[in-house]
Amino acid sequence: MTLDTVLLAVGPGDADRLDELAEAVVEVANPADATVSLAHVFTSSEYDEVVARLDFDAGDDEIDPDEVATRHSTIRDLAAILEEHDVDYEISGAIGEHGPTIVDLARSTDADRVVVGGRRRSPTGKAVFGSTAQEVLLSSPCPVTFVRNDE
User: Fold this and answer.
1) Do residues 35 and 5 make contact, with C-beta atoms less than 8 angstroms apart?
2) How is the chain split into domains, by residue range?
3) Could you give the C-alpha distances from 118 to 1, 64, 134, in angstroms and in order?
4) In a 10 Å sphere around its CB, with 0-12 CB exposed, 13-18 middle and 19+ buried, how is residue 72 labelled?
5) Given strand 5-10, what is the order of strands in its sheet?
6) How many angstroms separate the CA atoms of 123 and 36, rounded?
7) Architecture in CATH for domain 5-147
8) Which of the residue ranges 7-11, 27-31, 96-100, 128-132 would you say has the lowest mean pLDDT?
9) How far apart are CA 70 and CA 44, in angstroms?
10) Both ends of the chain: CA-CA distance in Å?
11) pLDDT value at position 44?
12) The CA-based dihedral angle spanning residues 15, 21, 22, 25, taken in that order and rounded to the nearest 10 degrees
């Protein structure tokens, strides 16, 4: 199977595992000369907080999620690592619930592989809070690489 597009989807909890996520993406994208679709997924409330923190012009009614993602430190740090490894990438932003939105991005980018991060959770924690990674693993239209943070 050839890889043309690898989707690396990150959210607010991924800042502490950037090196691991980047390593996983470079491992699959570099040998295949694939393009990485580097996407930051925000819930509506996360998006509003980031827009306020990044000091976008309050008078701008239509703030582009792609622009917000491009200015986000997590995306900038990942982009720098991909550039160091000569991996082509495109940046996008999306607003919605993390799991379903990542699955939608996988479909819309025609991804051949999805890379997501997550953490170990108890069965009760998954039942009460849901699991983005579980949603993506079960619903993705392509194989998923899960990068776990054990902390």
Assistant:
1) yes
2) 5-147
3) 26, 26, 9
4) buried
5) 89-95, 35-42, 5-10, 113-119, 144-149
6) 32
7) 3-Layer(aba) Sandwich (3.40)
8) 128-132
9) 17
10) 34
11) 93
12) -150
* HEC secondary structure over the chain: CCCCEEEEEECHHHHHHHHHHHHHHHHHHHHHCCEEEEEEEECHHHHHHHHHHCCCCCCCCCCCHHHHHHHCHHHHHHHHHHHHCCCCEEEEEEECCHHHHHHHHHHHCCCCEEEEEEECCCHHHHHHHCCHHHHHHHHCCCCEEEEEECC
pLDDT in tens, 69-112: 999 999 999 999 999 999 999 999 999 999 999 999 999 999 99
Nearest to 37 by CA among 79, 72, 89, 99: 89
Tokens 């550039």, located at residue: 83
pLDDT digits over 23-56, tens only?
999 999 988 899 999 999 999 999 999 998 888 7
**Residue 21 exposure: Cα atoms within 13 Å on the Cβ side:** 29
